[in-house]
Specification:
Elements: H1 55-59, H2 75-93, H3 99-108, H4 118-127, H5 137-146, H6 149-152, H7 156-165, H8 174-181
Helix pairs in contact: 2-3, 2-5, 3-7, 5-8
Length: 182
């Protein structure tokens, strides 16, 4: 705002501006209650979260007509198992789930095979039954842990070749036995 005309002002005014820069500090202090104050060791049972995991629930619906189920299996169980394993595959790559992750999961569990091995069908019936309807965290962890990361890091074509060569190399049944002890 301009000064009134009756107020005398010098012809040249010196302007001094105060610096608003903050001092840079190398110190980092945890001030919020939710921050971790130390690095925790990686505990088993927590998994690896990835971005946008809910998107897998939308993608899985596109496979409904492509999956072969026996008369004793339900779509919700097959879909839930595929989502669990597909999310593990996506998180191993550090990205959101894609169609290929769920396709790999369906392939590993033999849901694309019109005539799967009878042992695999029995395993699916025992272990995946009602997984879509229950909220059993340990069972879901066992399903995710039963497929080793080495098998999930392969390309989709290689996963299909491994399934054709024998599904036993892609699913570790001993994980389910350990989960029953818990």
């Amino acid at each position: 705002m301009a000064a009134p005309r009756h107020v005398p002002t010098p012809a040249l005014q010196k302007k001094f501006y105060k610096s608003t820069r903050r001092k840079q500090s190398d110190r980092w202090v945890t001030g919020r209650p939710g921050e971790q104050k130390s690095v925790l060791q990686r505990n088993s049972g927590f998994g690896n979260q990835g971005p946008d995991q809910g998107y897998a629930l939308k993608i899985v619906q596109y496979f409904r007509d492509k999956v072969y189920l026996t008369s004793s299996e339900e779509w919700s169980d097959a879909a839930e198992a595929a989502v669990i394993v597909g999310l593990k595959r996506a998180s191993l790559f550090g990205r959101a789930p894609s169609r290929y992750d769920l396709e790999a999961a369906f392939c590993i569990w033999g849901f694309f095979d019109p005539e799967p091995d009878s042992d695999l069908v029995e395993l699916r019936f025992e272990k995946l039954r009602n997984v879509g309807a229950t909220h059993n965290y340990l069972l879901r962890r066992a399903i995710a842990d039963s497929v080793p990361p080495e098998a999930l890091r392969e390309e989709l074509e290689k996963i299909q070749e491994n399934y054709d060569g024998g599904w036993q190399s892609m699913i570790d049944i001993s994980i389910f036995q350990k989960a029953e002890i818990l």
